[in-house]
Amino acid sequence: MSRIAHGKPGLDGKTKVLGVFGYPVDHSLSPAMHNAALNSLNLNCVYLPFMVRPEDLETALKSLSSLNLLGVNLTIPHKETALKFMDYLDDSAVEVGAVNTVNLHEGRLTGYNTDGTGFWAPLSDMHYSCENAETIVLGGGGAARSVAFKLVREGAKVTLVNRTLPRAEQLALELQQHYPECSVQVLGYENRHLKETIQQASLLVNTTKVGMYPHHENSSPIEIDFLTSNLIVYDLVYNPRETFLLQAARSKGCVTLNGVKMLVMQGAAAFEIWTGCRPDTEAMEQAILQCLP
Ligand code: NAP
Predict the structure, then answer these.
(1) Which pLDDT tens digit goes with each residue over 233-261?
(2) Do 187 and 160 meet the contact criterion of CB atoms below 8 Å apart?
(3) In terms of domains, do 103 and 169 share one?
(4) Which ligand 1 atom is the nearest neighbour of the CA of 144?
(5) Are residues 218 and 276 in the same domain?
(6) Is-above-0.90 flag for pTM?
């Protein structure tokens, strides 16, 4: 059963509160997306942005219980630090080493990471299977961790490509510790085998910030020549909606995906954890698209 009463839009004494903790937080699209979902289901609940300084994170998380919030999302720079303030951690947060969703239940905080679920949703919609398939993950940061763990769980062979090699090597080590049977290798952008490795892959995911607004003009994380039409090219960037990499991939005949659906579906997974209700993902996507140029 939902923890939130159905009711007319507007605030009253029964209104429940959700939110996002970030620093800064004013760039976040989550309030628009989640309020659209709450309104669409007529739930008496509001989702608010909270600017929480890093040194205040512990106090802010403890306040969820005092203030009787249902839960929060966490964004930069809180996702990793929050791990140690949770009472329980879902496997999704343990593996990735970061929490993006906190649920309060009976005074206890449980940390989840819904990015892997969000990432996989559009591929699953396409009936894409990566069992034993070669896949490429560009990047070695937080998003790369969620993507690489999800791909390994789906049975893919993963090549991690990152500017800072030790960061990717550390991720490869952790993947192998969690999944000893998995096939993971690390390559640098200058590696002479990169082109042929990409050409043997069925999926290439850009998890780097290259191509993201406002430094988006003509910037791609890899040589465009490396792309072939058999690749699905998936860029987690959602602003601009079509990055330079995706434009080039589309013109080469590749199937392309941007980061909008992932953003929606990681939010939808969090929404379901907090409310027990399936959100209207179409309304969430429309709310995001209205915020993007
Ligand atoms: P992060 O932890 O800061 O990692 C950033 C990554 O980008 C690192 O691997 C970094 O390489 C790489 N990078 C940055 N500048 C580079 C450059 N000039 N050349 C090559 N590599 C470069 O950030 P994150 O949280 O993983 O986010 C990464 C991207 O994913 C962002 O664009 C974010 O918007 C997007 N994202 C989208 C969603 C979604 O729902 N669609 C969710 C999460 C993230 P080094 O390790 O060498 O520094």
Answers:
(1) 999 999 999 999 999 999 999 999 999 99
(2) yes
(3) no
(4) 26
(5) no
(6) yes
